[in-house]
Amino acid sequence: MDMLQQLQAQAEQVEVLHVQGESTKVRFESNSLKATQVEETSGLAVRVIKDGRLGFAASSDVTATGKLMTNALESAAYGDAAPFMFPGFQAFPEVACYDPTIAELSIPRLVEIGQEIMAYLREADPEGMVSVELQRRVERFSLRNHAGADVAMMRTPFSLSFGVDRIKGDDVLMVYDMQGATLWEDDFMAPVRRVAEKLQLAQQIVPLSSGRMPVLFSPPGAVALTYPLMLGLSGKNVVKGVSPLARRAGEAVFDHCITVIDDATLPGRFSSAATDDEGVPHRRTVLIENGVLQGFYHDLKTAARAGVASTGNGSRSLFTLPDPAPTNLIVSAGETPLADMLAGIKEGLWIEGVLGLGQGNIISGAFSNPLALAFKIENGEIVGRVKNASIAGNIYELLRHIGATSCETEWVYQGLNQPYILLEDMNIIAKG
Amino acid sequence: MHNQILAALKRSQADYTEIRLEEREFTSVTFRGRELETASSVIDAGGVVRCLCRDGGWGIATFNNRDNLADRVEQATQCARAAKSENPIELEPIPIVEDHITVTLGRDFRGITLAEKKAVVESYNGLLLGYSDKIVDTVSRYHDTFSKITFANSEGSFIEEERPMVVLSCMATARDGDNVQQAHESYSKLAGFEEVQGREALAESAARRAVELLAAESVTGGQYPVILNSNLAGVFIHEAFGHLSEADFIYENPAAREMMVLGRRFGPDFLTVFDDGSIPGLRGTHKYDDEGTPTRRNDLIRNGILVGRLHSRETAAKLGEAPTGNARAVNYRHAPIVRMTNTAIAPGATSFADMLKDIELGIYACDAYGGNTELESFSFSSGYAYMIRHGQLAEMVKDVILAGNLFATLQNIDAVGDDFEWRHPGGGCGKGGQAPLPVGMGAPHIRIQNVVIGGK
Are residue A240 and residue A153 in the same domain, yes or no? Predict the structure, then answer.
């Protein structure tokens, strides 16, 4: 008798998750291939609802099923009331997230790709130290519950991260990027070329004085703005009463050019899949439309608390209970070409990245960060890199009035797609 | 398992082979607000084989299923052959050790019921919620882990070790209209359940501070003299300086080596910084690191001068220095990399009162929300802070984020306190995808001139 049946005899609701993964990774450090790695993972996680109470247990030893079931039932004996039901069988969308090209990538081929990336970056900056990491992974996910859900999925996440460190005296420059997808992209060099361009622009260091000025956030730089927003849109932070957006659905909370969509059904993106980690079908969820708050992203539990349906954003690792998390998050493109945005800036700042993302009281929308990589703009052109400057503000004030968003967008941090965002008047603190 | 490990090592074709197996069980109890989020136990077991081939590089295999260790060694050896490194890898010799380290816990948490663990967390959570009607959300968390780790390498070392840990953390969120503030306290020891009992003061302090922060104004950005409390000074030295002294950052980078050349002046004469993985009772303490090197005290800055750095066997061999016992892995999913253990600013001679009295306008910054460095640049946010006016502590301020350049900032330290403390925070350090690694931090109060404070 399998675990699902055995536990069904002892609890009203049961869910069994089985994950298996196999990956290979190659790592280049300091301009040289350093290590290759193979990884095999497997594990079981069980949720039960017994006498209305939720219990959970997990094990990476798939043979320890007896202990796993005992732990789950003990956990339920002390658990809180579960406000939700595991979903039954549901039709789910076809989502492309498995690619044999990725599954079959060999270690020698990964090494070759890494060498191509490294060679390109070394040529772009002969004084820099290049690091590259590539990982291909095949994931098998199967979830069954007492209500009849029976999901089996395979995904092939491929991730690529690379960067260049350049040290001249006491000046340290770090430029890097991280990309990921589940379908193979032939032009894997596109983000590498972008990093090489940034290295060129960063050659010259120019002074900057403190003051108010227009600031152009590039897609990676704009994460400083969208990260607090991601927390504010979390159904969990809403039901806990800590999101500043709670109870404001239907209100114009931002400039009309801001539209934010969560969509795990996009083909081939890093978080794309047919269902979430609770067996709820994935879908496209409009969170903010033309500045007006439409709703939040939820898992089963927060949705039940909020009295709405799960948006299919239940996300978990083997050893943790699900929590709502964005999947592929899209901040919609605007109408202005980047070149026009840049041309309109007489004196301002282009922000590529900040330090300390997420630190401080960001649930309130407040952020305050030193700039990791930023360029000075004069008369519509980048004139060089600035150092020792910092920005601060609150997104719930700043995003009410946006200068423009670009028609170009980029994928950043694997799961986020967004345009360049121009804020016309920000306070910049510069030292030296 | 002992014999299987030895047999697998013996059959290895690689120049160097190590096997690390880990079995752990951990229990977590988490309350969020009035709701119990988790009360559960999990089982985690797995291993890692790491091989070095002189005509290749490092090959690594990680796994959950620990049968067929010899096959895992073969897999890792093939990986090592595929990793054609341009820079040859050597390992600095270390003593061969056979050791079996067991621990005796005051109250062994493995024998304590989930009900009792839940009751303890529930009582702290009740204190948070009951402190004020302004407290709208809490996270109260208990976590224990008991790991059994077996390490063996092809040179003949064989170490078995038990590693216990308990963690308690309390976070309070206070809200007044649109004003939302959070405060956090945590405590952790490599010890038994008794360490998380009787910690009511920790919960109360998180609740009190969250409510106090509601009334605090945002700090005005600018440059100030700043006094850091022991907690924040510890995080500062860890983040801003400690990571630069990890030799894997410099060992293959001539420009970085030049920047971190031994003998360079980094700070004033009264500044001494060290890392020591051998001090009993601290979070980053182990008898051996994850390559089997004994841990020890390593001075990094002595009287303002850079005198040392942290090594693995590989970085030590490359730089012709001695291994320091700093190769650590967060778990069996990873090979060891150079990490800190317990890092500290040694005590100085200035009292806190003397540091305060000649500051006309400054900031007293306490605790850390988080920190981040990109080598020479750092940023971290204080949990709470006060203005200093006319030599005295004045009103509380919020959103205090310190930023700066490491070299300039260390030179700007103009007082080191006489009130040294080791801290036992519950968080951990992250590097190279390995987090949270338990580390210890220690410092007295320190004063720094001309610190950039972010602000609107």
Answer: no
